[in-house]
Amino acid sequence: MLIVRAVSVVCFWLHPLEGQITVKVHNLAHVAPWDLRLAEERASGIFRHAKVTINWELIPKGDAQGQQRSEPWNPADLHLRLWTRAAIGSNTFSDWTLGFCLSKEQSTAVVLADEIQRRAEADSSNPGDLLGLVMAHEIGHLLLPSPVHSDEGIMQARVPTGLSDRRRMLLAFSRQQAALFRSEVGRRAGAGK
User: Fold this and answer.
1) Which residues, 6+ apart, have CB-to-CB distance to 154 below 8 Å?
2) Is 83 helix (H, G, I), strand (E, B) or coil?
3) Percent of the chain residues past pLDDT 90, beyond the cut
4) What 8-state DSSP symbol labels residue 174?
């Protein structure tokens, strides 16, 4: 009986995640490498709970279109642009806006890195951690079929700031959202071939 339990534990840990997607990061706001690495780890952890693996790819700064000239656009990839508020214009969005979906058709979302930095400083929180939450939220919008926000979890209309580390760790996607992600990731993988 002990051996059977040990085998089931091993099988649990070897069970692969159900989906994998590439997110191309365009760091036009010049987010510090350590903050960006922490943000990617944070967002990856949130998606790991939804059984989706994210492969991060940093796009060179000189590549304004977000694609290498020799590389065709791949519908399986998502594009996450780290911009400043000045890059989008001050009157475009509310002061609470930390990110938005730029184009679902082109799988592109924007995260306002300077707003996140300012908010993190005001809340005495880690900017990389908050950046990761907002990145996960915006990637969620790209993968969900509708732009609707939820009442709780990471897809709330306003990503909660000023939370304790423990409360922040509890932010996740719902089971229904996770199932929708896995379905969309599978669809995109088929379209990208």
Assistant:
1) 46, 133, 136, 137, 140, 171, 172, 173
2) strand
3) 49
4) -
72 CB-near residues (< 8 Å, 6+ apart): none
User: What is the residue-averaged pLDDT of the chain?
Assistant: 81
pLDDT in tens, 59-110: 987 654 444 444 667 878 999 999 998 888 766 677 778 999 999 999 999 9
Closest Cα partner for 23 from 7, 6, 1, 46? Answer: 46
- Distance of alpha carbon 128 from its chain centroid, rounded? 12
Residue 15 has a pLDDT of 41
User: Residue 109: left if φ>0, alpha if ψ -120 to 50, beta else—which one?
Assistant: beta
- Number of CB atoms found within 10 A of residue 88's CB: 16
